[in-house]
Amino acid sequence: MVFLRLLLSSGLIFAAATALLVDENSKNGSSEAVDYRLPDNVVPIHYNIKLIPYIEEDNFTFDGEIAASIEICEATRNLSLHAVNLTIDEAVTSLVDSNGDIHAPTTSDYDDLTEILVLNFEDELPPGTYVLNMKYVGILHNDLHGIFKTSWLATTHFEPTWARRAFPCWDEPALKATFNISIKHHQSYTAVSNMPIREQDTDGGEGGTVWTHFHTTPVMSTYLVAFTVSDYVRVPNADGTVNMWCRSELAPYSKLAQDAAEKAGQLLTWYTNSTDRVPKMDHLAVPEFSAGAMENWGLIIYL
Asked: Where does the record say this protein resides (predicted)?
């Protein structure tokens, strides 16, 4: 009993000391909360994204380029957006206003904790629509987040906040936009994304590569953007709206999964009485994935 009283007394003394320490730190400002949210003075409207993943080489990188249409709601000298592990070419970063005038940032700041990049401009930017142009180099990660490479396949997992590893963006779920995605890859590989392919061009035949351009997505959050580059084969259903993507040796075994996916889609459409139609639904199995599956718009990726 004496030991118990002593233990309780020690606990009370420790708790009191901790409370005093926290209170003292609060007075000194050392416990100030970190604000991870972006300012609300800029709203993204549309992203044009070009990506070149190097999945055949061993450099584990990709080249990227964005032209992001944005609306500045309040006059500002700063633009804040997310970016992680992206080496941005500051020499070609520019902001073009609706009159075609070009504004170049004079300096930039980056916060490793919040993962927010701030572009600073000399002149005040009045409210209006602008296009932010940026070029950068990113990393094909091996931790199954962002754009990652596994078994000679490049794919994505952007939920909850990993789109910023693939392109500079306003990476908060409420900041929705439309997306045009273009991917350059070897002709022996296939690129798949949220939307059907709009067109392909051979880029002058350079090294047997091709650009695959996809249709514009509906308005959606950044974490729902998805794409893959692989040598998988496509197994379509009768009308080509439900496609299974897998290694060629597994194609004969994909029919059961395809039938289940097609029936599930029909049932959910009936149950929700939804009139929104996804133009196609691709189902793609990958050898490694940090989640059991990811329900991206038009492209579901499974382990």
From this structure: Cell membrane; Membrane
